[in-house]
Each structure stands twice: as structure tokens, then as C-alpha cells.
Amino acid sequence: xxxxxxTPRYLIKTRGQQVTLSCSPISGHRSVSWYxxxxxxxxxxxxxxxxxxxRNKGNFPGRFSGRQFxxxxxxxxxxxxxxxxxxxxxxxxxxxxxxGTQYFGPGTRLLVL
Amino acid sequence: xxxxxxxxxxxxxxxGANSTLRCNFSDSVNNLQWFHQNPWGxxxxxxxxxxxxxxxxxxxxxxxxxERYSLLYISSSQTTDSGVYFCxxxxxxxxKSTFGDGTTLTVKP
Lengths: 113, 109
Description:
Chain A has no helices and 11 strands. By secondary structure, chain A is an all-beta fold.
């Protein structure tokens, strides 16, 4: 089985722009979670989707949003980018949200200038 | 929310040495996982271990759920074991995991 894929792998944006990141889970996995990793804050939970519904959301401003499609692929969007949004954005998939192993993608490195 | 504390924060070993990494949780967790993050940022799942003991080659893990801690053992360490090790846990929802700050392991040849 192919692993979790994320596109793009690297991205450079300027302040005020918006960005969309994509995540394709492992085939058959219906739960997708997003995390932000920064040197200062570590790994922080952004949101989780299951069957096209957002089940949980972390403590992030409304500029961060996401969605999941019927094929379980997920996108996250960050509007009005700030310098502090520079981070590694990681996506994880699992079979079900209630438990089990999470498999992470390679991440998208976002640099905001 | 759940707080996750990992120790030690940094660990430097000579190749061939053994090590133990610890993860403490502030509250009960139903889902506990250990990950290894390689230098390119990829998080590799090592164990899904809400309780009990598991072994995979030179790595093993033990979780004592009643006492809210988990241990990761690395035996006969190799330079390729270097990287950051994270534990993560949550309630009934594994999709919303709280991560510790990680243990940075450096294995010297």
C-alpha cells in the first residue's frame, strides 16, 4: 500500500497570502489529522476529519481551516499568512478515529517571508 | 487537556549502548504511540501501545496505563537510531493526539 502523501513538499509564501495543502491518506483510511510542528511550540494538533466531518479542532485561529472529500483526501487552508505560520505541516491517517496506529506523511515545509 | 512529559530531553550514546526513554502523562490515555522523527522530518510510528509490552527487533516498549507512563527501550543502538523520539497520547480519539516535546537521541560511532 502506498503511504500517506502530502503536496506540495515545500512552499514559500509572503505575508498576507493564503495557502492550501493537500493530504492523501493510506487507501482505506478514513480518518485524517493535521499537525503543525515548529521549533518553539513542538507538535500541535490542528484538526481531525472523519467521513468528511470535522471531529476535533485544536487551539488555532480561524485563519486555519480544512476539509475532507468523499475519497478521504483532505486539504487544509491558511489565509492571511503570518510569519509565525512558518512550520512543518504534518498529516496523519488512521483507519478509525477511536484508536489505532497513526501513519504520518512526509510533511509540507511552509516558509512565510 | 492532557500534558505529556518526556525525559530525558537529550541523550548521547556510543554505538552499541542501550537506552531507556520515558513518557509521563498527566491523565489517563486510551491511545499511546511512540514515533521516531528522522532528520528529514518524517514521523515513523514505532509502537501503538496503550498498555502492556511490545517488542520489534532492538526496540521494545512498555506502558503502565494505571501509573500513566510509558517506556521505550533501545538496545544495541546504531547511528541510524539518531533522531527525535516522540510519545503521543489522547483520550478515546487517537486522531487528536497530544505530543511530548521529544527526546533527541544522538548515537556516535
